[in-house]
Every structure is written in C-alpha cells, then in structure tokens.
Specification:
Number of strands: 12
Strand content: 15-25%
Shape: globular
Structural class: alpha/beta
Radius of gyration: 21 Å
Low-confidence stretches: none
Largest sheet: 8 strands, mixed
Order of helices and strands: EEEHEEHEHHHHEHEHEEHHHEE
Mean pLDDT: 91
C-alpha cells in the first residue's frame, strides 16, 4: 500500500481580493466612479514556493501585492498568513504580523532614502520592531550586507554612491532584516541593466534556499518568470485569468490572453523564431474605471462569443493544478 504524501498547508491564502480606488470630482470631491485595480483574485502559496505574477503594465500586479501586505486596505476579500486573517487585523496586530511579511520594491533609486546611510536604512526595521541595542543592530546590519554580497565597510555610505544593482541588494538586505517568511518581489529587476538582472535573481534564489523564503514574484518578464517561479499566475485587468505550474503553463497555455503573451516571447533558436506564430491582439486595454461586462478580455479576444459578455468566467480547474477563467475552455 502506497503511503499518502502529506501536502503542506499554504503559507499565504488570498480569496476574492478586491481593491477599488474612488474617482472624485468637483469642489466637494464627490465620488463619480471607481477604478477596479484588483477585482476578485484568488490564489495561495505553499511554504518556500515562488509564485510568479505576470501581466502587462496597468493590469493591477503591484496593487495586488501591496493589498496582500495590507499596505493598501482591501475593499473586499480575505488574506491569510498561516491561520491569521491579515485583512481583519487592527493596526497593532498587523504591526506584529508584518515582521514576517516584507516587500522588495521595483526602483531602488526611489525606495531608498537618499539622506540615510546604508547602515541606517538596513537597521531601520530593527529599530522599529525590535529592542536590539546599537551594537546588536550594527552586527546584524553587517551580517545582512554580507548575505547579499556587499562589503560591510560600506554601511556608512549613501545610496547615491552605489550602482543600481548594489542599491537593489541594499533593498533586499532591508527586507531580510526581521527574518521574514514571505517576501513580495515587485519587479525587482525591471529598473536594472540586463547584465545585472541575472545576478539579482540568482541572489534571491540563493537567499530563498538559505532562509526558506516564500516569494510572490511580480514581473512582466516572462522569460525570467519561467526561470524563477514554480507556478505562474497571469493577470489581466484586475483578474487572474490563468494559473498553473510553470512548465505546464509555458508548454500549453489555455487562456487566449496567455497564448498571446507567450507568442510574443522571443526564442533563442533562430529557426523557431522565424516560424513561430505571433498572436496580435487588436484594440486597446480597457480602462479599469470602465471595464467591459462579462469576461474582462472579451473586447480583445479573437475567439469571443456572445456568452462572454454575460458573466465573469470562474477560475475553474481544467487539469491538475491548472485553472483557467474562460467560458470557452472546458
């Protein structure tokens, strides 16, 4: 008799998460509309897993990440960290949980205070959340800088004295300061030179293995996501339209939007590059302030039918671990 394989409980569970921003106008700033930046996303992450979140600019990836961490207050839905419902916590309770949930921001030039030294930047979380003495903080900063490949002697320098890749390493060190379990990487390589991107990604993978980290890796770089992520979620206009294991998604995408995205990824084989079929989408991305009825992708979908305008398709399972939100996929 074959023994059952124990599946670990998810570290992060997100259920029907929404984040809507009000649109106001007039002298009295009356609300006249709503930007539906994130409109009902559901996913989970297992411990030590990397989930890639991909989609074109403006689809709501960054807003989703910040709402998961409660940097933005959710309009609706629930986020669980282990057994704790993060979206139901008060300020003081949330402060304690945030030590285990951190974020690496997209542009290190903007996310690091130019008036603070590297030592002050990396030690700030320790100062805010722990009772470590000055010597303990200094030793911890030196340890963190070494962990991300920087010389501890640089701790008295300022961010402008470093390259873009080094500044991003400082941001990674700051995120690691409180020994988190879950880190959201919000396009951490988008602002870096191509020659530096692989170094930062390799660093994140090494740190994940060393410290047992769980990542939500947000990016529009499908090639990099394929390399780093175990599973991939594809986002369009505030919705997750497909989620699957990385190899499965890249080998046989089911949703028309995912198929169009992957058709645009260049290959390293010149023969395949000349013969591969590109899917060119027509029309513009609708505004999240006035999304289409029914399926959010139907206005650009080459296979859309009348029923696609009726209701938002459910993210349903079409294969083991493979879920698609499309009326035409069975």
């Amino acid at each position: 008799m074959t023994a059952a394989i124990d599946t670990p409980e998810p570290l992060i569970r997100v259920h029907n998460l929404k984040k809507h921003f009000p649109i106001t106008a007039g002298v009295f700033r009356r609300q006249v509309g709503m930007v539906k930046a994130v409109d009902g996303i559901t996913f989970d992450l297992l411990p030590k897993e990397t989930l890639g979140l991909v989609g074109e600019s403006g689809c709501g990836k960054t807003t989703a990440g910040r709402t998961v961490l409660s940097l933005y207050t959710a309009t609706e839905g629930k986020v669980y960290f282990g057994q704790t419902e993060v979206t139901a916590l008060g300020v003081n309770q949330l402060r304690a949980v945030r030590q285990k949930m951190q974020m690496i921001f997209q542009d290190p030039q903007d996310s690091l205070n130019p008036r603070m030294t590297v030592g002050s930047i990396v030690s700030e979380p320790l100062l805010e959340h722990t009772k470590a003495t000055g010597l303990e903080r200094t030793e911890r900063v030196e340890e963190l800088l070494q962990a991300v490949g920087l010389n501890p002697k640089y701790m008295n320098r300022y961010p402008h004295e470093f390259s873009g890749g080094q500044r991003q390493r400082i941001g990674v060190a700051r995120a690691l300061a409180l020994n988190p379990e879950f880190i959201i990487c919000d396009e951490p390589i988008a602002a870096l030179d191509v020659s530096i991107q692989a170094q930062v990604v390799n660093l994140l993978e090494d740190l994940q293995e060393k410290f047992g980290l769980t990542y939500l890796f947000i990016s529009h770089d499908l090639g990099m996501i394929r390399h780093i992520a175990r599973r991939v979620a594809v986002m369009y206009l505030g919705h997750i339209v497909e989620i699957a294991a990385s190899q499965d998604l890249y080998r046989r995408p089911q949703h028309p939007y995912t198929q169009a995205l992957l058709s645009a990824v260049p290959t390293h084989d010149p023969v395949r590059e000349q013969t591969r079929e590109r899917i060119i989408l027509t029309g513009d991305v609708p505004s999240p302030a006035d999304p289409p009825t029914g399926c959010p992708f139907r206005t650009r979908c080459p296979s859309a039918e009348a029923k696609c305008a009726g209701e938002v398709p459910e993210l349903k399972q079409v294969d083991t671990g493979h879920r698609v939100a499309c009326h035409l996929v069975t």
